[in-house]
Amino acid sequence: MLSKKLEKALNEQINHEFASSYLYLSMAAYAESENLPGFANWLKLQTREEMGHAMKFYKFVNERGGRVELLAIGQPDSDFRSPVALFEQVLGHERKITSLINSLYEIALEEKDYAAQVMLHWFIEEQVEEEAAASEILETLRMAGEKGHALIMMDRQLARRGQG
To answer: What DSSP string runs through 9-63?
Structure first.
């Protein structure tokens, strides 16, 4: 059985995950408007991944006898100025989510909820991967620049995500 404190925090995290999904969809729309279909592909896959994260928390709350309460999702940003600015925001957002997951883990420790700790380990590892992927793309963009052949090549590389 979940403690009320942990249940509340998990419901907030479900909201953050759905908001992340919505943000990445807005980012994909921006990339498509900039004729960067590969970037849009990467971001749309990220949208689905974040939705999956929300549902993983949703399932956990229900399996532990808690009650899921869906909270309002705010309007995401929609103007990202450039591919570099876009991925600076992706990385910043993933760092924010990492901080939230770490806070959840602290609550699970306080509440001595071992099942939640085990479940959260998966998310902790996932966030390491998420931050590394965003950081790699951002650093490559910074090196390559935001115009010309390098950007086109990056777009084609990002288009391949999910095909293998």
So the answer is: HHHHHHHHHHHHHHHHHHHHHHHHHTT-HHHHHHHHHHHHHHHHHHHHHHHHHHH
Quote the tokens at residue 115.
């099942």
Q: Is residue 112 left, alpha or beta, with left meaning phi > 0 and alpha meaning psi from -120 to 50? A: left
What distance in Å separates the CA atoms of residue 70 and residue 93, rounded to the nearest whole number?
21
Question: Which residues contact residue 123 at a Cβ distance below 8 angstroms, ignoring those fewer than 6 apart?
Answer: 53, 101, 104
* Predicted TM-score of the model (pTM): 0.94
Question: What's the CA gap between 62 and 97, in Å, rounded?
Answer: 22
Q: Distance (Å, rounded) from C-alpha 88 to C-alpha 93?
A: 8
pLDDT in tens, 74-115: 999 999 999 999 999 999 999 999 999 999 999 999 999 999
**Nearest-angstrom CA–CA distance, 62 and 148:** 50
Question: Any idea which residue has 């609550």 for tokens?
Answer: 107
DSSP string, 131-144: HHHHHHHHHHHHHH
